[in-house]
Amino acid sequence: EVQLVESGGDSVQHGGSLRLSCVVSGYTYTTYGMAWFRQAPGKEREGVAGIDDKGNSIYTDAVKGRFTISKDNAKSTLYLQMNSLKPEDTAMYYCASSAHNLRPTIDPDYFRYWGQGTQVTVSS
Predict the structure, then answer these.
(1) 81 in helix, strand or coil?
(2) Spatial distance between the Cα atoms of 124 and 105, rounded to a whole number of angstroms
(3) How many CA atoms lie within 13 A of 63 on its CB side?
(4) Is the pLDDT of residue 100 over 90?
(5) Which of 12, 37, 88, 124 is the most buried (most CB within 10 A)?
(6) Given a cut of 90, is residue 121 above it in pLDDT?
């Protein structure tokens, strides 16, 4: 059974930092594309950052220069380092994995497996 389990969400002040983690089990994900998404109350799900098997990455404009996606294949873990957090970053954050290799993308249609989410709250 494929499982993605996120952690690291918390409540922080404007300008603070957090690192989200997503542990993958049930398959060898090293060659698959992965990504982080977020959804704020009353808003649609938004792609945040994506990464391919070679470590190439893509970001939505709102987080460029502040967030960094990375992965540790030995630990089967995907990360999202979030710096200079803003209140508008407040959302539930989800990690997702495709079922095949693909170029970095944050289009949710390409992702088959999803975690349950971890809450990030940024206060002003």
Answers:
(1) strand
(2) 31
(3) 26
(4) no
(5) 37
(6) yes
**CA gap 95, 4 in Å, rounded:** 7
The string of pLDDT tens digits covering residues 38-78 is: 999 999 999 999 999 889 999 999 999 999 999 998 899 99
Answer for the pair 76, 63: CB distance below 8 angstroms, yes or no: no
Count other Cβ atoms within 10 Å, centred on residue 105. 17
Tokens 């969400």, located at residue:
9
The CA radius of gyration of the chain, in Å to the nearest whole number, is: 13
User: Tokens 């970001």, residue?
Assistant: 59
Read off the pLDDT band of 30 (50, 70, 90).
low
